[in-house]
Amino acid sequence: MQAAITAADRGHRVTLAEKNGKLGGILNFTDVDVDKVDLRNFKNQLIYEVNSRTVEVKLNTEVTPAFINKMNPDVVILALGSSPIRLPIPGLNRALHALEVYDQGTRIGERVVMVGGGLVGCETGLHLAKTGHQVTVVEMLKRLANDSYGMYHEALMLEMGKFNVSSRTGDRCLEIMPTGVMVETAKGEHEFIEADTVVYALGMRANSPAELRIAAGECPVFEVGDCQRVASVYEAIRNSYSTIMEAL
Known about the structure:
The chain has 248 residues and is α/β, with parallel strands linked by helices. The protein has a five-stranded parallel β-sheet with strand order 5-12-6-7-8, with helices on one face. Strands 9-10-11 form a three-stranded antiparallel β-sheet, with no helix packed on it. The chain starts with a helix and ends with a helix.
């Protein structure tokens, strides 16, 4: 959306194609998360900015090589985002990804084990705790939310403590079973943690746009946001703005 806004403001005729039925991408989880009001407002502001310009928005439209050939654009901007990393953990198919937690049609049990205690895992775990679930976060590192920073990290830890989010740092998930998770502790011991629902947050991987680059032929192609490098919302927005300002 930021790339489309910036390109439109620079006088270009922009078509924004989105494979889902609404704009917002990964940030649509903020419509449900109890702590993400500010980020939700930012996402909604971007949607407003897109709709207030002469950007042609095509929803329910996945960009394929055939689509690019049909459109015959002068420039292609790829903002394909990222996808969850799935490690070879036995039984991972039994678990939900953190983003699936925010699908209001998904049933979450009372006892939840969150496999992965980075920032996403901790924030999702906190959301679940605030909505009535008993949450245990399992993290291999000795520090939860190791990818967060300074005062926010301290505030997050305090909030998790306030809502009784349990943590198992230094533990490695060995297997996800129908009734819980088997972990290996820092001492090499195996322990079983009971759960009604298991959720995982093991990082994200940039979506590769290789086939779309090939389809574009000699047409200039620019990658923005997470499909260039998985990063924060701020970094994705800044990257999108600066890329379009420099390229167009």
